[in-house]
């Protein structure tokens, strides 16, 4: 009797472990943090980054940004982005002037929270970082995420975004 219960418990543990492994495959996360230092004051950079409706002005060619909603204080501003990896919708969900912009991805190929951080450095420099922790959404992205390192691809593409921001700032003559 005890051996049968023990065997049954082991089999149940095995089934749970097997199920957890299957679920893990389909819970692919996209995590990255990409940074760049700019020779501009934090306030100026914050003004550009907190205005997601203006991203189309400086994001790389080939990335389409469509404004969905705008508000007077920028909280709740929404955009739809079409890029090489698919589309997503995001909105500003928190602002801490000249320090942090929180963005929620709420529809599309990825879901979750991201944020910009803006950190003053020595000699008038400012460090800008974009940090993501997103879940791949949809069966195809999750399956592809098993064999493709989307975090590395995102970082590669986001370095282009940060470079475009630099060119935009230069054009603004800040």
Structural features, described:
This protein has four helices and seven strands. It is of the alpha+beta class and 174 residues long. Strands 1-7-6-5-4-3-2 form a seven-stranded antiparallel sheet. A hairpin with an 8-residue loop joins strand 2 (64-69) and strand 3. The radius of gyration is 21 Å and the shape is globular.
Q: What is the CA-atom radius of gyration, in angstroms?
A: 21 Å
Low-confidence segments: 19-26
Secondary structural class: alpha+beta
Strand order of the largest sheet: 1-7-6-5-4-3-2
The helix/strand order is HEHEEEEEEHH
Strand portion, in percent?
35-45%
In DSSP terms (H or I, runs of 4 or more residues), the helix count works out at: 4
How would the global form be characterised? globular
Report the helical percentage: 25-40%
The N- and C-terminal alpha carbons lie at a distance of: 79 Å
Q: Whole-number average pLDDT?
A: 85
Let me know the number of strands.
7
Sheet having the most strands: 7 strands, antiparallel
Q: SSE layout and pairings?
A:
Layout: H1 2-25, E1 29-38, H2 42-49, E2 64-69, E3 78-83, E4 86-96, E5 100-108, E6 110-120, E7 126-136, H3 139-147, H4 150-172
Antiparallel strand pairs: 1-7, 2-3, 3-4, 4-5, 5-6, 6-7
């Amino acid at each position: 009797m005890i051996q049968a219960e023990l065997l049954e418990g082991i089999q149940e543990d095995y089934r749970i472990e097997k199920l957890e492994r299957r679920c893990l495959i389909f819970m692919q996360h996209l995590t990255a943090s990409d940074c760049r230092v700019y020779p501009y004051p934090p306030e100026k950079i914050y003004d550009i980054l907190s205005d997601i409706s203006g991203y189309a002005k400086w994001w790389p060619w080939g990335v389409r940004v469509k404004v969905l909603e705008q508000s007077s204080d920028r909280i709740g501003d929404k955009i739809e982005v079409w890029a090489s990896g698919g589309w997503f919708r995001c909105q500003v969900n928190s602002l801490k002037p000249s320090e942090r912009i929180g963005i929620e991805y709420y529809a599309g190929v990825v879901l979750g929270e991201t944020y910009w951080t803006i950190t003053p450095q020595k000699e008038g420099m400012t460090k800008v970082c974009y940090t993501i922790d997103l879940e791949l959404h949809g069966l195809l992205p999750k399956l592809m995420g098993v064999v493709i390192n989307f975090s590395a691809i995102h970082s590669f593409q986001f370095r282009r975004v940060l470079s475009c921001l630099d060119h935009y700032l230069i054009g603004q003559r800040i």
